[in-house]
Design a protein that fits this description.
Elements (H helix, E strand, L loop, with lengths): L1 E5 L6 H12 L3 E3 H11 L2 H10 L7 H11 L9 E4 L5 H14 L5 E6 L2 H11 L6 H24 L3 E5 L4 H13 L7
Parallel strand pairs: 1-3, 1-4, 2-3, 4-5
Helix pairs in contact: 1-8, 2-3, 4-5
Bound molecules: adenosine monophosphate (AMP).
């Protein structure tokens, strides 16, 4: 069971992905968390990631695709994964399809969380992570609009996209996640 959450910074992907993963009993893979941890431990990937994390720019596609390609071969991912923050570009989305084709397990659903920009800014400023400074926030929005937004159309055309109003409370949003989950879209062939 493979699920992706898509949304701009502050949309609530982490909260929703972790709750759904716990309910389904499969890992929640947040690429932001993975990269921050790698940077903290100063692994080779972490040293590359550190150059991008603080600036609001995306790490190069091949770096994150290699990390995910390796991670999903681990035994805890056999029954599936809830991805949070990946894929974030069209090349990442096509690379994920290729990885999943190798595994013989296609993506089940792509859940997009929609929240107006001012509400995102308020949420991020309240959260106060080190990359939640107003200038970095604007860079991350720019990356989302230019690089991530096109993957919505990619998944829409595949019949996998479900769009969720992310403005409510975490419980309200999760109720929508579950309702889509229980009636997943049919893959168009
Ligand atoms: P997040 O915690 O999802 O907001 O991600 C924090 C930062 O990690 C982003 O601003 C990027 O620099 C990096 N990052 C996370 N996921 C990806 C990804 N799929 N592709 C490239 N960079 C990523």
């Amino acid at each position: 069971m493979l699920i992706v959450f898509i949304g701009p910074p502050g949309a609530g992907k982490g909260t929703q992905a972790s709750r759904l993963a716990a309910e389904l009993g499969i890992p929640h893979l947040s690429t932001g968390d993975i990269l921050r941890e790698a940077a903290r431990q100063q692994t080779p990937v972490g040293q590359i990631a550190a150059k991008y994390l603080g600036s609001g720019q995306l790490v190069p596609d091949q770096v994150i695709v290699d990390v995910i390609g390796e991670r999903i071969t681990e035994s805890d991912c056999e029954q599936g994964v809830v991805f949070d923050g990946f894929p974030r570009t069209l090349p990442q989305a096509t690379a994920l399809d290729a990885l999943l084709e190798q595994r013989g397990t296609p993506l089940k659903i792509a859940l997009s969380l929609d929240v107006p920009e001012q509400m995102l800014i308020d949420r991020l400023m309240a959260r106060g992570r080190s990359d939640d400074q107003i200038e970095t926030i604007h860079k991350r929005f720019e990356s989302f609009d230019q690089l991530t937004h096109p993957i919505l159309e990619y998944y829409r055309q595949k019949g996998l996209l479900r769009e969720i109003d992310g403005t409510g409370t975490p419980d309200d949003v999760y109720a929508q996640v579950l309702s889509h989950w229980k009636t997943p879209p049919q893959v168009l062939s």
